[in-house]
Write a structure and sequence with these properties.
This protein is α+β, with helices and mostly antiparallel strands and 110 residues long. Helices cover 27% and strands 17% of the residues.
Length: 110
Amino acid sequence: MPQRERYLFVCTNRRAPGHEKGCCMERGAEAVHLALKEQVKARGMAKVQARVCTVSCLDQCSAGVTILVEPDHFFYGRVSLADVPEVVESLASGSRVERLVLTPEDLAKS
């Protein structure tokens, strides 16, 4: 299997209900992960362009659902199911969804 151009690591960390930091799973991470996988595969991008993976805590709890995009090394934050088509389109075009990219200020909160 060839190395993909990009890897999307979707945080699926789960914390106890009521935890002060919250968690990405409570915010819909499982549905986002599954939708990303389905849409990447449906567009024929899964073999070469992108691999969608789950990962434990990315330390960006305040901005969950969080996705780390590598090798570009940036985070998407506050991702919802409604954002998935735009994220997949950005992968196809080699761009980013700027409104979802976490800023240095966002990254400093966690």
